[in-house]
Amino acid sequence: CRAPSAESGAPSPLSRREVVQLGLVAAIGARSASGSRLPRPAAAPAADELQDGLARLVREHRMPGAVAGVYRAGRIMTAGAGIANLNTNAPMTAELAFLTGSITKVWSATLIMTLVDEGLLDLEAPLIGYLPHLRFGDPTVAAQLTTRHLLNHSSGVDAGDFILDLGEGPAANRLFVEAMAKLGQLHPPGRYSSYCNGGWVLAGHLAETLTKKSWHQLLTERVIRPLGVTRTFADADDGLLYGAAIGSVPDASRPGFHMATPKFLLPKTFAPAGATLLTNVRDNLTFARMHLAGGVAPNGTRVISEKSARMMATRTIDHPSGPATGFGLGWAHSTADGRVTLSHGGGSNGGRAMLVAVPGADFGYATFVNSNASELFQAALSRWIVQTFQPGGLIESPPAPAPGPIDRRRFVGTYRRATVKTTIREDGEKLIAENETVPEEYQGASAYGIGQSTRFEMRPASPTTLVLATADPSARPTPWTFLEPDQSGRYQLMYSGGRLARRVPG
C-alpha cells in the first residue's frame, strides 16, 4: 500500500507509510537538519510544550488533526490538536483512539512470542509441521518457511500487499492462507527482507490453529489485558464505543484541503497485519515501555519473557538497501551513531501512525495524523519531538557524493509484485516511473490510495539507486535500490517502499 505525497506535489519513491513501516522515521527524527549533534535540553520540557508544538505544526502543514505522546524517564505526556473527524468537526484530543495500521504487527509479534515462551511454538521449525495444509506456488517453500521468516519479512512470498476481503476471524484467515497457494516467490526464504503483509495473516492463522482461539481473543487475553491498558481494542467496533479519530484524504475538488475518508477500515481479513487494532497514544507508549523494560508492563505484569523481548529487539536481517536498517522480530530496527532505535509505522484509510522506542535511553514517542498526505508533517513532527524531548542526539553521516555517469538503461524495464506493476522507461533525457495497481489483487483497499499519483520522474543517485528527480540531494532522499544484475547489467530486482519486485517481460 502506498501513500500520496500531496504536500510536495508528487509521490515520494518511498511513501510515508512505507518509511515508517521500515523504521526510518526514527532515524529521520533523531537527526538534525544540519547533521550536528542535538543539544541536551537544559530542563525537562513540559506537556504544555508538546501541546503547543503539535498545534503549531498542524497549522503550518494544514493537517486536519494529530495526536502525539512522549515517554521519557517513566513519564508519559500526550497532546492533541486540530479536528478528529471532518464529518462532524469534532476536536482532536489526546485520549481519542485511532487505527494503528501496521504497528499491529509488533503487537501480533508479541502475541506470537507468548506462544514461544510457553513452548507451543518453535520459531525455527518449518511451518508445515504446524500447518499441514500450507501450500505456495513454489511447492518447496512450505517445507522451508519458518515463523521467523514471517516475523522479519524474509519469507520471499509475493504477498506484500496481496489483499482479499474474505470477512474476519479464523475462517477468513484460513481462506486467505489457502489463497496464498497461488502466489509465487520474489526470492528464496531468508535471502532478503521484503515487507509482507500476507505473512502476518498467516502468522495469525498459525496462532489460531495452535490455540483454537481467534486472533482477537488471543491479543486481548495475552497482550492487551496484561498490559493494563484501557483504550486498546483488537476489534475496532468495540473501540468506537469510546470515540476515535477518523481518517482524511485530499479533496480533489479543493486543492490543499481534505475530506473525510469514505471508508473507515481496510478489509478485516487483514486484522493480524493491521486492519482493526484501535488504540491511543498513551496505550501505545505503555506497550513500547513494556518492551523497553524487557517484557514487563508498568503494572508489574510480565507479558513476554526477557529473552523474547530481547529477541524482538535484535536485528535479524538487513534491508536490501543497506545495513543501517532492517528488522528484528516485528520491530523495524535502525542504527545510527551506535544507537539502536526500534520503530514501526502504520497506515489506515486516511491515517498514519508511528511508534518509536529507543532502548537504553528510556525514551519513546507515538504519533497519529488523520491524513494520508502527511509525509512532510510527519517528518517535521518526528524531528521536533526528538530535538525537544530526547536527551542527546545522533550524528548524521555526510551526504553521498554526486555520482559520475550512470547507464540508465540498467534500470529500464517492467517490475512486478502482487498488486503493483512498475514500469521504468526513458523519455528523452528523462527517466519516468509509472505504477499500475492490479485491482483483483487489492480487494477492498481502494480508499487507501485516494489522492495518490502514479507517474513521476526519477534520476540516478548511484549506480544501483534511483531517487525522485525533484528531491534535494542534501535531504538524503530515500532511494529505490536495484539488485541482481544479469549478464547485460540489467537489474532483476527493484526494492522500493520496503517491497521487492522482480523484472518481468514487457
Mean pLDDT: 89
Oligomer: single chain
Number of helices: 13
Secondary structure tally: strands: 21
Helix content: 10-25%
Largest sheet descriptor: 9 strands, antiparallel
Going by helix content, strand content and strand pairing, the class is alpha+beta
Distance between the termini: 23 Å
Proportion of strand residues: 15-25%
Low-confidence stretches: 1-42
Based on CA inertia axes, which overall geometry fits? globular
Structure characterization notes:
By secondary structure, the protein is an alpha+beta fold. The protein contains 13 helices and 21 strands. The protein has helices spanning 16-21, 24-29, 47-60, 104-117, 141-144, 147-151, 170-179, 197-211, 215-227, 236-239, 281-292, 306-313, 375-389, and strands at 65-72, 75-85, 90-91, 98-99, 248-250, 258-260, 278-279, 317-319, 322-327, 332-336, 339-348, 351-358, 363-369, 413-417, 420-427, 430-437, 455-462, 465-468, 480-485, 491-496, 499-504. The strands form four sheets. A nine-stranded antiparallel β-sheet has the order 3-2-1-13-12-11-10-9-8, with helices on both faces. An eight-stranded antiparallel beta barrel has the order 14-15-16-17-18-19-20-21. It is globular. The chain starts with 15 loop residues before the first helix and ends with a strand.
Notable characteristics:
8-stranded antiparallel barrel; disordered N terminus; 13 helices; 506 residues; alpha+beta; 21 strands; globular
Short précis:
The chain is α+β, with helices and mostly antiparallel strands. It has 13 helices and 21 strands.
